[in-house]
Amino acid sequence: MKADLALLVGSWLAGTARAQPNNGVVEWKIQKRKQPQDLKRLGRRDGTYEEVIKNEDARGGYFATCRLGTPAQDLTLQLDTGSSDIWVPDSSAKICTDSRGCDLGAFSPSKSTTYETVGQNDFDISYVDGSSSKGDYFTDVFEIGGATLNNMTMGLGIKTDIAYGLVGVGYALNEAIVGNSQDTSSAYPNLPVNMMEEGLINTVAYSLWLNDLDASSGNILFGGIDTEKYHGDLTKIKIYPVQSAYTAFLVAFTSLEAYSPSGSDTLTSSSFPIPVVLDSGTTLSYLPTDLASQVWKEVGAIYSSQFQLAVIPCKMRNSQGYFSFGFAGPSGPRINVTMDELVLDLTGGQPPVFNNGPYRGLDACEFGIQNFTSAPYLLGDTFLRSAYVVYDLVNNQIGIAPTDFNSTRSNIVAFASKSAQIPSATTAPDQSKVTDLPSVTSPAYAASPGFTDSAGVKGSASGLSPSPIERTFAWSSHSFFLAIPYSLVSLLAKMRVIRAAASLNSARAAAAQQGVRYYSLGSRVAVGSVCPAPPRWTASSLREFSSEQAKEQAAAGMTVEAAAARMSPEELKRLSQVRNIGIAAHIDSGKTTVTERILYYTGRTNAIHEVRGRDGVGAKMDSMELERERGITIQSAATFADWTKKENGVDEKYHINLIDTPGHIDFTIEVERAMRVLDGAVMVLCAVSGVQSQTITVDRQMKRYNVPRVSFVNKMDRMGANPFRVVDMINKKLKIPAAAIQIPIGSEKEFEGVVDLIEMRSIRNEGQRGINVKVSKDIPEDLKELAQQKRQELIEKLADVDDEIAELFLEEITPTPQQIKAAIRRATIGLKFTPVMMGTALADKSVQPMLDAVCDYLPNPNDVINTALDRSKGEESVSLVPYNSLPFVGLAFKLEENPYGQLTYIRVYQGSLKKGTYLFNSRTNKKVRIPRIVRMHSNEMEDVNEIGAGEICAVFGVDCASGDTFTDGKLPYSMSSMFVPDAVMSLSIKPKKSSDADNFSKAMNRFMREDPTFRLHVDEESEETIISGMGELHLEVYVERLRREYKVECETGQPRVAYREAITQRADFDYLLRRQTGGPGDYARVMGWIEPNEEHAEKNKFESRVVGGNIPDKYLSACEKGFAEVCEKGPLLGHKVIGASMVVTDGATHVTDSSDYAFNLATQLAFKKAFEDSGGIVLEPLMKTTITSPVEFQGSVLMLMNKRGTIVDTEVGADEFTMIADCSLNAMFGFSSHLRAATQGKGEFSMEFSHYAPAPPHLQKELVAKHQKELEAKRTK
């Protein structure tokens, strides 16, 4: 059917409109003509087009000639059903005045007497390739042939890099002004609305007839339909809203079938019903990857990594096979699309040729159906040429029927009135069944041989043995096309369709301002989220690039959606089966025990070893000797494992990167940096104690970094285990909706397994160490009622957080297991819910179902929005995409020293990392080489040559600090680091032997590099070395490590508490500094007052209220520096002053003796003098202390705590109690030994900083006297 055209020959269709006011229609006819190709972006923006343009080369845009202004100026504009603005390039725009010029015309406002600006700088629209148009809104005369609109609002592209304008005829909410103002009331009458208001048409509706791929004419008919342009029935189907706002022509695509001379197949997808946008002008059609892959297999298409799209032999356009698309449910309309509409030339010149594989020697063409990664999907020109489509924007309906190709007859029927239904159309029945989920099955590919055989394609791998799609990825690693000239590759880039990414999102945002909600078609479309940067839900048609082109485009500002759509099925598959998770919990909840079982059941280890090294080996993840002795985790440890999960009867292998974190508050930085880089987490809770103090801390850290979590109630075999109490505590104390997805079979010592509430089946462990999982549909009789009750509670909880389940719940429809799982995944990733499982890791029961839940409910790297800061744009936030072909971005989150040098843990957020490549440190701007890459398995290493996007690895030979960002040098990005809490305890330290000074220094440097919460400084007054950390245990561990790892015995002084000083009342000052030492002296006078900072109790504030210039600005900055310096070392104890405000109102200077130094010093002395009159006090840190102990020791613990602080809360359980108190840190030194003595070693406690409060008066006097004594001793030395 297709005629060969010379390379670089293009065409557009210039059309004329014919107004027929009496009939209430305006017809826009188009004819094709050729012209040398010089359209840089010969593709439309954000929606459908009027007619078939240049199908061989420039395919994708529909243009027509219009007239603007008085006198009229001719412009050729592109028609767009997806946007709503008419906009034209300004003739003075740079793109119109340079060598390229605006060949299709530009508008000169100064030449029109009817031009009027109505919105200066309000017009602003941008596109997925980074192009944009900005300028003013204006009104002027707009002519379409014989139809004239005298007051049409349009956009003027003053700053534009697009050489032609657009005529948008979509929903008014797609206007750029709506997106920019976020206000739906700012919408103005667009072209079809204005036509109706001017009486040219009766309603806001039009029909589109694109005709055959090779046809030279077609039309868009405003206000009516043409019954001769289709055959069969014209059927009405619903347009679905986005957040209750109609912004795009979104319909329900519900089935797809393949037919050929050899048979037929029904193709299925887990995404059905699929939300699709009928998007004429988008060159190709984009379907979910699983569905597109089946289509490719039917026709023998091959995914080409070289072109980043599916290709097919050009001879396949002669195939007698076709695809049948179904809409709006089982009884809805069907459109058949033949292969001659789906095979498109890659170029207008010599085509590329397959040089290996089954199609060797055949010309290669582009296949018209490609894959896309997120809803809504697109049915572009390759589909719509086979359909006659009526767009009814008043009743929000689409009329669709099979097109009558090359029809020469016409019978135009106008809409009778504004609310009139589509003429001659019938409504599709049973549209309520759209949400019925079909079973997902693998097709038999009976039609596959007929597709290829009828086209005369020999040597193709048709059918099942083996198919091209199965061999695609093996071939992709090699070049299977002939060499292609660069000009040809460049042309390919130009020929792709580009669409606006802004319109759909703009309308969504505007609709969100109105407080509306969106219910999807039962698909997995996520609209709106509690995440700070939710994924955009766009229907973008995207260009395809090679890897190098993709990198260049990303560096120039590619959107997240554009990059995501370029991922190959292989890349998507890899990412979908990656999980980066952490295990986090309160101390002694069983985190490391759970991790040991995970490693064992995944086959990563061959035996299970217990915590505390009872078997002489110790837990794999507790590799440090101190950890095994004390039975606690001190350092987070990373590992990786593969878990095989059965899905739809098929084994799917998931790759899990796992970090086991400490539970003690003293090592909280290990949890902080793990949460900073993880995509999800397993929160382990004790079945007896439930939510404990460190659980709350971990919850806070997860929320800080937006980490979704699943919860695992451990120790179900303990006496007093109550998982439902734990679920209640999660809801109330952690304030995150939670519900059990399992119930226990048996309790305490009788615990056997769990009942899965989603599938309603029982799960038990059998065999040595519970290696075998026995699944049965038989639920114990005594648990059936409880199971039904808890399943209903689960559904009710999900209805509170998920719209789809809420809709089913309100309609009293019981959701299917698949719907429940999908809702749990959406809500968990959306940070709105946590599913709760249960088991006992020590007894080897019910750990495997938890692993399945990690795969089912926690996100893969592609599900999480990660951002960086673009330093070239004022640290503007930009999204990162886990796509290997993009420029590299990674974050160093942990450092370790080992015998081979510094080991740097890196999370790869974007791009891939290869051994031997060079990276740039964004902080230091230094270039570093990566000599070695390893995967960590606790303290063991496995060398690898390359790590892909979304993975975690470690590298050697990189000099950096924790929190540094690395790029490949092409992107000016940096990433925010993790939160580092302040130290709460200090002590003096020195080596016993002076000969150990070198090792002591090396150890201190290493510890500070590895642990940001460990600090060291030398006290200027006492000249002692002071180390600071998160608590007594924290510092004790480092002193012990000095002894063991560096053979340095140390002496430690009494722990020093990080006191603070503050003022309690206002005190005025008028201080004059006058010193003469021969030559220039020092002169400065400052006046004002100090007072407590009412705005922030822990921050200091300096304010200048000097008028008249008595103190010049340069000296005021010196005053501010002096205030900051004096607050670092307070007058009472030499500790920091907090919560002070200093106001300078006046002062005096000397012509020669005043200086920055003088005013700095005067400010410090003035502050110290005023401090005496301001009621200076000493503040001590209060620690939130949580003690857990057996109930019989409650009285003893109560006596201990009465001496140390204020009891805030006490919770008594079946066999143990928990007490929470605010205690002075000074009173807690040595508390651990007292607690052990009082509870026979059975009590435990944890502390975290709470706040500063005034110390008791007697303690303040003692501390001040001691400080003065130390100063006096130093002066008399």
TrEMBL record:
Membership in a protein family: Belongs to the TRAFAC class translation factor GTPase superfamily. Classic translation factor GTPase family. EF-G/EF-2 subfamily.
Top-level taxonomy: Eukaryota, Fungi, Dikarya, Ascomycota, Pezizomycotina
Principal place of residence: mitochondrion
Catalytic residue positions: 80, 279
InterPro entries: Aspartic_peptidase_A1 (IPR001461), Aspartic_peptidase_AS (IPR001969), EFG_II (IPR041095), EFG_III (IPR009022), EFG_III/V (IPR035647), EFG_IV (IPR047872), EFG_V (IPR035649), EFG_V-like (IPR000640)
Transmembrane residue ranges: none
Coiled coil: 784-811
One GO process term, biological-process aspect: proteolysis
Sample GO molecular function, one term: translation elongation factor activity
Pathway: Protein biosynthesis; polypeptide chain elongation
Residues where GTP binds: 585-592, 660-664, 714-717
Pfam families membership: Asp (PF00026), EFG_C (PF00679), EFG_III (PF14492), EFG_IV (PF03764), GTP_EFTU (PF00009), GTP_EFTU_D2 (PF03144)
Leader sequence segment: 1-19
One Gene Ontology term, aspect cellular component: mitochondrion
Residue ranges of every copy of the Tr-type G domain listed in the record: 576-862
NCBIfam families: EF-G, PRK12740.1-5, small_GTP
Domain named Peptidase A1: residues: 62-401
Protein's recorded name: Elongation factor G, mitochondrial
Keyword Mitochondrion in record: yes
Function: Mitochondrial GTPase that catalyzes the GTP-dependent ribosomal translocation step during translation elongation. During this step, the ribosome changes from the pre-translocational (PRE) to the post-translocational (POST) state as the newly formed A-site-bound peptidyl-tRNA and P-site-bound deacylated tRNA move to the P and E sites, respectively. Catalyzes the coordinated movement of the two tRNA molecules, the mRNA and conformational changes in the ribosome.
CDD domains in alphabetical order: EF-G, EFG_III, EFG_mtEFG1_IV, mtEFG1_C, mtEFG1_II_like, SAP_like
Keywords from the UniProt entry: Aspartyl protease, Coiled coil, Elongation factor, GTP-binding, Hydrolase, Mitochondrion, Nucleotide-binding, Protease, Protein biosynthesis, Signal, Transit peptide
Amino-acid biosynthesis keyword on record: no
Cellular compartments annotated: Mitochondrion
